[in-house]
TrEMBL record:
Residues annotated as transmembrane: 26-49, 92-120, 140-162, 174-196, 225-242, 254-277
Assigned keywords, A-Z: Membrane, Transmembrane, Transmembrane helix
Protein name: Transmembrane protein
Length: 310
């Protein structure tokens, strides 16, 4: 990244901080609600599955130690299947609700970042725009998920020859880590269009799914390095925090799990909100670079991003 590109990257961060200062009350409300809802989901997940997991482990231990036969074995297997179904059902429900909370938080953050008003009324934000924006983002997220699944499958497929032709453990580990780093960097590069497509889905009416991703790809031409730098920054921040939590001892304690979970949620929500603020700024900068006007839509006034870099 050259000096001009670095200056543009820093300018986007500075402008995002200005947006945060201008809409601090609304952003604080979004962050608080997001953290609160995700924390409640964490507690629900822990306490809803704790008893079932203990029962599952007890049955598994009984199955391994006593080696039951006949009706007793059948009852144990039925109980195991029932516990597994309950755990999977709870986890799936928590995952869906968590995704919806993140989706609404993202939409609200982008909409607030795009307005010059200090406070958006509930009617302006929630009723007029947010629901429709999130519906469009949901469709775009589905297409992004398909691309992500395809990318993961491609990555795993390319790992097969490495594991087949390299038999030395150290060399295999080294090459696998190196390949993983390259795959991560390429994913961060590809995700520039994906996450900007979500911003497009929120900001532009009747633009979602593949169309939003195509629109994002066209907008980000010449500015993709900025998006890569932003995504890299936020990804590394999350990786450092997650790895730091993994290094903490006594993670099996319930109280430690709750504390770590809440801390991770707080950090993740704050990073995600600021990330979408910077992406909104990048969206406007890309529109300006393409010579497009930053128009008014509905009751929301789009901020004109005063970036001078090209």
């Amino acid at each position: 990244m050259g000096f001009i590109e670095f200056s543009g990257f820093v300018a986007i961060l500075k402008e995002s901080i200005k947006v945060l200062a201008k809409n601090g009350h609304a952003m604080a409300t979004i962050a608080t609600l997001s953290i609160l809802l995700h924390s409640l989901l964490l507690f629900a997940n822990i306490f809803a599955t704790k008893t079932v997991i203990n029962d599952l482990l007890a049955k598994e231990t009984l199955l391994l130690l006593l080696v039951p036969q006949g009706p007793e074995l059948a009852d144990l297997l039925v109980g195991l299947k029932k516990d597994i179904r309950i755990i999977l059902g709870v986890e799936l429900a928590i995952l869906i609700v968590s995704f919806l909370v993140s989706l609404f938080s993202m939409g609200a953050t982008i909409l607030v970042s795009s307005t010059c008003k200090n406070i958006l009324s509930f009617k302006d934000l929630m009723l007029s725009r947010l629901a429709r924006s999130c519906a469009r983002s949901l469709i775009t997220s589905f297409h992004i998920a398909l691309f992500l699944v395809g990318y993961v499958i491609l990555f795993l497929t390319m790992l097969i020859p490495i594991r087949v032709f390299i038999d030395r453990p150290f060399a295999l580990k080294f090459v696998s880590i190196l390949f993983g780093i390259v795959a991560l960097l390429f994913w961060i590069y590809l995700s520039v269009v994906w996450v900007l497509g979500l911003v497009v889905s929120v900001m532009e009416e009747s633009c979602y799914g593949i169309e939003a991703l195509g629109r994002a790809g066209g907008l980000v031409k010449g500015k993709r390095l900025y998006g890569f730098a932003l995504n890299f920054l936020f990804t590394m921040a999350l990786v450092i925090v997650f790895e730091g939590c993994r290094m903490i001892k006594d993670r099996k304690s319930l109280s430690v799990q709750i504390i770590l979970g809440v801390l991770v949620i707080v950090f993740y929500c704050l990073v995600a909100i600021f990330q979408y603020m910077t992406l909104t700024v990048l969206y406007f900068e890309c529109k300006k670079a393409q010579g497009e006007e930053i128009e008014l839509q509905g009751s929301l006034e789009y901020s004109k991003v005063p970036l001078n870099t090209t």
